[in-house]
Every structure is written in structure tokens, then in C-alpha cells.
Design a protein that fits this description.
195 residues, 3 helices, 5-stranded antiparallel β-sheet, 2 domains, alpha+beta, Jelly Rolls
Amino acid sequence: MTTAVGASKNSPMSVHVPALPLEVDPLIAEAKQRARRRRLIGLVLVVVLGAVVGGTFALRSSGGAVGVCSVPSASWRERSLPRTGMSEATVVLTNFRFGRMDDVYGLASPLRWPPRGVMVAVSNEGPAATPPFRRVLRVAATDFRGFEGMRRPAANIAIRSQGRVLDAYVEVGSVTAATVAAANAALAGVHVCRA
């Protein structure tokens, strides 16, 4: 009499399969979880890459979103506001602690300014034609006059740069040679850039 491989003499075709050890089940669950994470990470990467490519194409097709950038010294504080539907790209610089950004970018806010306090707000107005223009962003002591809503001496100047109008407002605690020089040092680092 011949018996099948793995079959016992009592049961003609029974095969004994050992159960999986208990340690294997958590390993399988962990492998499935890692696979799900990899798929999720892959999906996120595809979405991010699509957004970057789409954003780059949109910027190139619209001629580029042109902003305003600055290179402030270490003692200056900077806040940049991107272009929105209601306002142009603007950079605001101060040599003291910022207050609220409302009220003309903080220029008309009721902050307590130090006597040597200087605040500069430069907006990229686009290709608008608003005379009078200067050759460089630079103020003189005689430029500081009162503006409606501003509590301290303020100056307004504009230049053309790369086909764009940079409109600058400078406000100081008091008009002195030191505050005018500080304002001009801040203005020297402002330029048109791609936002």
C-alpha cells in the first residue's frame, strides 16, 4: 500500500499546516502601514510638484509677479507684505519695535516712537506713471512735511525701477541728520524683485 506524501495512514489526504507564529501578525500589519505611508507621501509629493510647476507656469505666463525686497542692516526690523487684490507688494522697515501694521502700514499708528525712530514703507505700484520721480530712493531733510493721518514728520518720494514705480513713505520721530541718514541707509537696500 502506498501513502501520499504528508498523509497519515489513518487519513488518506490530510495535510497539517502549522499556524503562523504570533510575532508575524504585527509585522504584517506594520508592513501594510508603511506601504500606506509611502503611498500617502507619494501623493503629497505629486500634489506639491504639481503646485510648483503650475505656479512657475502662471508666473512666467503673467510676466512674473514683481515685488519689492530689501536688504536691511542687523539693527533694522523688516516686514514684507505680498501683493493682494487690494494692495501692492510692500516692504516696511523700522529701527525700533514694530507696532500694528494697519493705519498706512503702521506709519499713522499711535506708537510711542523713540526720538531717533525711523519707519520706511516702500510699495511696488506697478507700471503706473505718478510723477514726480527721483533717480534714486533718497530723502532730504526738506522732504519731510506733514501728511494727513501721520503724527510725525513724513516724506513721500517715488522712483522708476525696471519699469515699475517704487513709492516710498518715510516717517521719523524727529528730523535730524541722524534720522535722515538712517532713512537713506534703509532706502538704499530696497529694490524691485520677483515676489
